[in-house]
Design goal:
Blueprint lengths: L13 H10 L2 H15 L15 H7 L7 E7 L4 H12 L3 H11 L4 E7 L1 H13 L3 E4 L1
Antiparallel strand pairs: 1-2, 1-3
Length: 139
């Protein structure tokens, strides 16, 4: 009987690996995550921080005026998908592929387009997206 040679794992320099990951595009990282999950069974998920629980009375007295920053959430794309992609690209300063991926993902679940935006800017972005045919919510 012949013994099978087991492939020894290659030594990886953590600094080089971290630099490669930091310089990779979102598309490359997404593909890498899929390969890790499919081929090696490694699931990569972002950690979810527990949200602080606020009392209803404190929330009611604070009101909308107390909120200093908003997140713009894309709920639905509408019929003018290309127009929405253009607006998202302009707002986020992302590349065409990243903007398209975000808009495509919004078809299945709401996606945050931009976070920590002042009320005036958030309203302006909401108007632009709605003019392009998208459904938007400020949170």
């Amino acid at each position: 009987m012949a013994e099978e040679k087991k492939e020894t794992p290659k030594k990886v320099d953590p600094e080089k690996l971290a630099e490669t990951i930091a310089n990779a595009t979102i598309v490359d990282l997404n593909s890498t995550a899929k390969i890790l999950e499919e081929k090696y069974g490694i699931s990569i998920q972002a950690p979810v921080a527990a949200a602080p629980v606020a009392s209803v009375s404190a929330e009611a007295t604070a009101g909308e005026e107390a909120k200093s920053s908003y997140s713009i959430e894309l709920k639905a794309v509408g019929e003018k998908k290309i127009e929405v992609i253009k607006v998202v690209r302009d707002i986020t300063q992302k590349g065409l592929k990243e903007a398209k991926d975000l808009v495509d993902a919004a078809a299945s679940s709401p996606q945050v387009v931009k976070e920590n935006v002042k009320k005036e800017e958030a309203e302006e972005i909401k108007k632009k997206l709605e003019a392009a045919g998208a459904k938007v919510e400020l949170k």
